[in-house]
Amino acid sequence: MPRVFLRVLDGANSIGGNKIALTIDDEGIFLDFGVNMKKKREYILGYRALTVANKLYYYLYSEILPRASGIYRRDLIELDERIRRILDRGLSLEVSMAIISHGHVDHYGAVGFLSEDIAIAVSNSMKTIMESMIESSSISDVEGEIFTIKNRKENLRRGERKARELEVFEEGKRIRGAPFAVIPYPVDHSLPASFGFLVEDASLAYTGDIRKHGLLSGFTERFIEKVSGVDYLLIEGTRIDSSIRISEEEVSREIRNYVKEKEDKLSCVIVSPTDVDRVRELIELSRELGRKPVISPRVTYLIDKLEESGSKITVPKLGDVGIYFERRSLTEGGYDLKSIHYRKWLKNVYLDRVDGKRKGDLVKPEEIGRKQDKYLLILNGLDYVLELAQIGPTPGSRVIVSTSEPHDEEQEIEWSKFEKWVHLLRLDLRNVHSSGHADRESLIEIIEEIKPRKIIPIHTENPYEFQRLRRIGEIRSEVILPKPEEAIEL
Ligand SMILES: [Zn+2]
């Protein structure tokens, strides 16, 4: 009989940071290898921990990354003798592939630290999402080296990179190169190209991040069917303590009303940049309401890249869509595209429109300012409120926040800064959001439909709620609460 071990190295008692090691005899895989954002925010302060020379050391010391030998990049280990000593005292793992469920940083963001011998397995669209989001973000050096590695030891020429071994998987087909049978099935979440997995040889399924109330709920239903009857179910429990279920349809309806109420004023919706489906819905809504949709350059870049990659994701058509032109340069009234203040990706988004190579036209804030009732802004990130100051909205203009609520102190601080600007700009603020995660009742349904012998909750701050539900008879599967230092023999 093969011996199967499961280790939840991180993500058992937190939302995000999933790092699940599954080994059968002496071969293993990771299911996700994300950044635990909460832990990172708790320990990382100042620039010291951000220098390449010290990053891995600080991350291991504070256990932002698990102490395990055999999984990290040799070039980073060789930078610092102390790292080897920490790792030698940790556990030893044999892993040849990191299989990623979707393009959220809390599921893939620590792959850059993994040894060059560990391949990364993603879907084609997922890869495009990850690459374009990294490029258009402030993620730098090691953490951005997901698909290519800049070797710090061999002194490669400046900018020279080595490709990490890559396996592009397709839904319903066994992942090539994996040491045992792992089959990906798409699930519904708050961004496209999200997957759950069936590990046949371990009779185990992993939900990734999942919901039943989104536009692609059919995916979730099919995943449930495909993995039904497994012995073990690794299930996310972000919202195991909440029965609130607001659908994407409800969100669209609410946003429509909120925009309509402000017929003669500007309206702006803030959504996550990777939620391509919601962006597409909002563009359509904007057209129906007779307003010109204006999207952020970051979303535009993602859409351009998805189109280029031949992705199957339905991206919005940008024919009549405006692309928000950020004022950044010191010359030409703030819009000099030759300026270094436009990063390469941003410059490309704009130049492709100036040259007429791609659809969509550039819209400057002052143009929006002149005809405020003719636009619907679809922007990403609370910091975009600063762009509203560029536009100069008439008092009482509407801003609708459609992203998840702040769930830690740092995000609360961000939120309060955002609110300061909202008040200063005299905006009429509304909040409406449909979560990317299943609510308690949906989670119970998922478990009851799959009927696993045992469930292993992950991606939750409240794993005990699963135990309570078992105790009161709502869940029939046995509940295993994983501990990071423990290997569970399946
Ligand atoms: Zn997610």
Describe the structure.
- It contains 16 helices and 24 strands.
- The chain is an alpha/beta fold.
- It folds into two domains: 292 residues, Ribonuclease Z/Hydroxyacylglutathione hydrolase-like (Metallo-beta-lactamase, Chain A); 184 residues, Rossmann fold.
- The strands form five sheets. A seven-stranded mixed sheet has the order 10-7-6-3-2-1-24. Strands 18-17-16-19-15-20-21 form a seven-stranded parallel sheet. The protein has a six-stranded mixed sheet with strand order 11-12-13-14-22-23, covered by helices on one side.
- Helix 10 packs across helix 11.
- The longest helix is centred in the C-terminal third of the chain and has 16 residues.
- The protein is globular and about 70 Å long.
- The chain starts with a strand and ends with a strand.
- The model has no long low-confidence stretch (mean pLDDT 94).
Features of the shown structure:
490 residues, seven-stranded parallel β-sheet, alpha/beta, Metallo-beta-lactamase, Chain A, Rossmann fold, single chain, binds zinc ion, seven-stranded mixed β-sheet
